[in-house]
Amino acid sequence: MPAKPARARRPRGAAESLASIVLTFEAVIAFLGGLAIFGLDALPESVPQWWGVVGGVAVALLMLLTAGLVRYRWGIAVGWLLQLIVALGAFLVPALLFVAIIFGGMYAYATIKGSSLDRINAKRAASPTEPA
């Protein structure tokens, strides 16, 4: 029986690739941030401390899910919302503000510069090649 030919992969733009990389790495940091919230007993006394771990896992999973959805414009917006959530975590653990600034800057660079590269590449692909 002949093997089926491999299905061609969907081409990914620079913005999609870079943003998904940033979100994937930040997911690990979000999980560790949840552990820090738990370990430092940073939540109010009325809230069980294990909710810090649950929150960290939830944000990490949302980041991983969003990393697969950044091909859509709304996926990029969800990524920005997640950056805001990490920044709000600084109210519980001030060190998370440093994480939010670093990863927020990387996400901004990935989305802005990646979109710029995508426009340049689309322009090159659309223009006819000049004879040598």
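(ticket continues) Second input and output from the same batch:
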Amino acid sequence: MVSSLRHRRFQSPTRGPRGHHPGVFGLANALAREGRLSPDEYAIWRTSNDWYDDHFPNPSEADPSVYDPALNPGAAAWFRPTATEALARVAPYLRILRAHGVPCVRLESASPGRIVYADAYQVVALPPQAQGRT
């Protein structure tokens, strides 16, 4: 059961304009912002985002510097292995991305990097290649 002890992240396989791999929420949010979602997809996206907003801490609200590119270059959020309900609720986002041809890969790691933020559901970690620059 090693995989159950691994952190999980869903992200673009390619770097975005800011040099990092956008996560599943950022990818779906971009589709919504660009007006590319159907009414049904928009309703699913909005309901899903509302659930996360109501049940999931926002690392940036707890620590506004957590994603600061100068202080924490490459910082990325990973689901904790125990965040089962939050993980289960990623599926609608993945279906929307797939329907729009937006690639999204699942990463797993027992050690996602140096932790700069943690709560009951997630960690924000610096990837190993960024740790030497902080």
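Agent notes: The chain has a mean pLDDT of 92. The radius of gyration is 15 Å. Closing as not reproducible unless the customer responds.
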